[in-house]
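Protocol step 4 of 6: structure prediction from sequence.
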Amino acid sequence: MKRTVFFAGVSALILAVAAWAGEEQEETKESVVAEKFPLLTAGALTKARLADLPEGVLLRAESVEIKNKDIDELLKRVPEDIRGQLAKNLFFLLENVAAEHLLLLSAKKAGKGEEDTDDRSAIHAYLQGIASQIDVSDEEVIAFYDENKSMVGDMPFEQVKESIRQYLTQQKQQERIQEHIRTLGDRLDIRIARGWTEAQAKLAMDNPVDKARASGKPTMVEFGAQGCGPCDMMTPILEKLREKYRDRVNIVFLPVREEQIIASRYGIRSIPVQAFFDKSGREIFRHIGFFPQEECEKWLRKAGAE
């Protein structure tokens, strides 16, 4: 009888430990920023771990520490006309500040930060190394040409192949750097304040672009401005797309002059830009400049439009 009670006790203990381990694994899974807040970031804090940090500390990563007061001081220096916008996007501000510190830390670990090298030069050399040795095959150049003949004005392949190769090379280099920055958390132990991040995520998602991405529908966002020639040419196309797809697809226009911080969050440097997101909110493609309706519809279908 005693032995039965003993084994019953051990079994209960094993079950309890297993349950605790399951909860711990679930918590670990949820503690990564990108998994708990998938629309919040695609940058340096994508794989940062949500943690309970000391009061006033927002981020820690080895020798790097960023405090609430540091972000508050930066916010005070921002022009008044965009300070209100940035106040709703403090996670974006923190991520940009953190990215420079984290890249410098990585550069020094890679031996790029010599005593006579300034921080920006060290980061630049480090990123150049990440983007080096990118190859674009002839097959990739031909495939791009075949799919985008209208974008190159139907010029003969031989006249544009090297320009296409250069464009694809730059695109690949940029993608490699962006992926490296997104995965900094795989190489560095980045911890970010849990409660602060949760509060900031709610504020940051309160805008037309992120609401559309979270809707469960395919989404096309036009980043543009009135008075911009190609942007104005896109206006009737957007109206036709809204009419054709109605409630099945989100067609969003974001005026970048009025919404400068949202535009910055999405990396908009020239206009117009058309960004396409699938039903999960994942960006699948973006284009710069005027985009014919048939091309827009092609990417909406790839995003899941019916």
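Step 5 (inspection) to follow. The longest strand covers residues 219-224.
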